[in-house]
């Protein structure tokens, strides 16, 4: 029986992955031709975003300029979507996940599975005691929906995928048959998928790299050179490895994962995403970009970009989120706060100076100018 594919989220990456899945479904007998995209409804002028997607086949707010296939259908009813879907692909900001899961809970099909593209960690509710270490978003999906959850992450800046520029992604999936099926759903000539079994390691790399990217943004703003940024990336890499070994032991990230797109690839792409100027200069090489394209483009590499803007403008993070991300919350500072909490509980702050400094700067407890100072006595150099 043909599998029903649903994408939960319609931001820039949600739109990109919907386009990929809809095109693959169209030429397959394995997946239902219709791919549904869950849209958090909003008005664009007088029109509903879901109506715009279904009539103009373009997400004019979050991925303007990219035509979506006609078999990618926008829907707004979560319970109905859950009852229809065999494969639920989660791609939305982490802070919306609990609400979305509440809408899906009790409305899923037997045998359905999930895939998460969300790079983040669960920060929990304030009144709940948090577990040791970080809580995974996929665990939240698994426990709420009672289904398996694979992970798809990598150096995947949505504006580039939308333009079909070659890239790679890592699929973490413990079931080899399901992994092969998901690869057939996601892979295209320009979006190449490698499979590894360790789902956890793919997810944790995708979350922790945002802290490093924020630090890289500080570095850019402070005028340090490429040597310094390379050091920040390497030290960040080593702190990710150290963090996972400390909290998760041998079940954690292996060197194999770190060499994947979800590890090394994602850190590098997030820290070096300085292409906005180039993307902004031309549209298909033919003229100036429209405002929508420019806004969409600026969503790529948000952590580095806002890290840089925080230092250059001195504006508070929340204000920059409003001005530059249309009110979206930046993930790097949220994740850095969670990591800081976990490290503090374990008395481990001094072993992770980079991640700690990013948190202290984002929360206004340290001057950005002191960032590199924190790295001079890094445990990696002792
Ligand atoms: P940001 O979350 O910093 O925009 O990074 C996007 C990304 O993860 C691309 O791989």
Automatic annotation (TrEMBL):
Residues 201-276, 288-373 form the Glycerol-3-phosphate dehydrogenase NAD-dependent C-terminal domain. Substrate binds at residues 119, 302-303. Its EC number is 1.1.1.8. The active site is at residue 209. SUPFAM superfamilies: 6-phosphogluconate dehydrogenase C-terminal domain-like, NAD(P)-binding Rossmann-fold domains. One of its GO terms (molecular function) is NAD binding. InterPro entries: 6-PGluconate_DH-like_C_sf, 6PGD_dom2, G3P_DH_NAD-dep, G3P_DH_NAD-dep_C, G3P_DH_NAD-dep_euk, G3P_DH_NAD-dep_N, NAD(P)-bd_dom_sf. GO terms for biological process: carbohydrate metabolic process; glycerol-3-phosphate catabolic process. NAD(+) binds at residues 9-14, 96, 158, 302, 331. GO terms for cellular component: cytosol. Keywords: NAD, Oxidoreductase. Residues 5-176 form the Glycerol-3-phosphate dehydrogenase NAD-dependent N-terminal domain. It catalyses: sn-glycerol 3-phosphate + NAD(+) = dihydroxyacetone phosphate + NADH + H(+). It holds the Pfam family NAD_Gly3P_dh_C. It comes from the Eukaryota. Belongs to the NAD-dependent glycerol-3-phosphate dehydrogenase family. This is Glycerol-3-phosphate dehydrogenase [NAD(+)].
């Amino acid at each position: 029986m043909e599998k029903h594919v649903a994408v939960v989220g319609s931001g820039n990456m949600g739109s990109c992955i919907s386009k990929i899945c809809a095109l693959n479904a169209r030429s397959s007998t394995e997946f239902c031709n219709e791919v549904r995209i869950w849209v958090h409804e909003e008005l664009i002028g007088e029109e509903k975003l879901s109506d715009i997607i279904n009539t103009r086949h373009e997400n004019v707010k979050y991925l303007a300029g990219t035509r979506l296939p006609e078999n990618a259908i926008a829907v707004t009813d979560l319970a109905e979507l859950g009852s229809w879907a065999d494969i639920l692909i989660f791609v939305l900001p982490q802070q919306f996940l609990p609400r979305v899961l509440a809408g899906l809970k009790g409305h899923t099909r037997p045998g359905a599975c999930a895939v998460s593209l969300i790079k983040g960690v669960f920060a929990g509710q304030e009144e709940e005691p948090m577990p040791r270490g970080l809580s995974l978003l996929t665990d939240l999906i698994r426990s709420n929906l009672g289904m398996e959850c694979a992970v798809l992450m990598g150096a995947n800046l949505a504006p580039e995928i939308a333009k079909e520029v070659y890239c790679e992604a890592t699929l973490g999936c413990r079931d080899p048959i399901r992994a092969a099926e998901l690869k057939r759903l996601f892979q295209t000539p320009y979006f190449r998928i490698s499979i590894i079994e360790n789902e956890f390691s793919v997810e944790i790399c995708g979350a922790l790299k945002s802290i490093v990217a924020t630090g890289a943004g500080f570095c850019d703003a402070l005028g340090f050179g490429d040597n310094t940024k390379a050091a920040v990336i390497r030290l960040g890499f080593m702190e990710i490895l150290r963090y996972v070994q400390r909290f998760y032991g041998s079940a954690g990230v292996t060197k194999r994962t770190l060499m994947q797109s979800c590890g090394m690839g994602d850190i590098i792409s997030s820290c070096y995403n300085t292409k906005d100027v180039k993307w902004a200069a031309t549209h298909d090489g033919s003229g100036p970009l429209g405002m929508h394209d420019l806004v969409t483009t600026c969503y790529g590499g948000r952590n580095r970009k806002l890290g840089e803007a925080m230092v250059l403008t001195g504006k508070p993070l929340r204000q920059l989120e409003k001005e530059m991300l249309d009110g979206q919350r930046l993930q790097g500072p949220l994740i850095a706060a969670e990591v800081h909490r976990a490290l503090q509980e374990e008395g481990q702050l001094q072993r992770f100076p980079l991640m700690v400094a990013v948190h202290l700067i984002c929360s206004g407890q340290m001057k950005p100018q002191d960032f590199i100072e924190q790295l001079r006595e890094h445990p990696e150099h002792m």
